[in-house]
Amino acid sequence: MTNPSGLFVDTNALIRLLEGDELVITLLSDRLVYASVITEMEMQCKANQPTEERKLIKSLLNDCIIIELTPQVKLEAIKIRRTTRMKLMDSIVAASARFHGLPIVTGDNAFERVAHLDLILLPPR
């Protein structure tokens, strides 16, 4: 299962990490970092991404523990989507964090609508 010292990250938290955001760097230092398979995919979908950037992202993702989409997470995501009207991808990410009992680091305040989600909301830049 998951590690209590771990943190779950949303796509925007990883982007901010890559951009050198000191708060995100501090939060994630010496922690196990978990990410949804959705985040893994979103990080690699930028059109015309330079090769070096692609390599850096792949390296970062290799350091993360990727949480796959399981039947239980699917059911959680459906519940979240129905009750919050969040985007489906965000609902899957939130469901993954909540199901695994991990705090989620994100800059997206839409996650505040999810009940029983341990949220670390990053301030706007």
Helical percentage: 40-55%
| H/E topology pattern | EHHEHHEHHEE
Poorly predicted parts: none
CATH topology: Rossmann fold
Strand content: 5-15%
Q: How many individual domains?
A: 1
Q: Strand pairing plus helix content: what structural class?
A: alpha/beta
Report the principal-axis shape. Answer: globular
What labels would you give this structure?
five-stranded parallel β-sheet; toxin activity; globular; alpha/beta; 48% helix; Rossmann fold; Ribonuclease VapC; toxin-antitoxin system; 125 residues; Type_II_TA_system_RNase
Describe what this molecule looks like in 3D:
It is built from 6 helices and 5 strands, in the order E-H-H-E-H-H-E-H-H-E-E. The chain has helices spanning 11-18, 22-28, 37-43, 51-62, 71-84, 88-99, and strands at 7-9, 33-36, 65-67, 104-106, 119-121. Helix content is 48%, strand content 13%. Helix 5 (71-84) packs across helix 6. By secondary structure, it is of the alpha/beta class. The chain has a 5-stranded parallel beta sheet with strand order 3-2-1-4-5. It has one domain: Rossmann fold (3-Layer(aba) Sandwich). The chain is globular, with a radius of gyration of 14 Å.
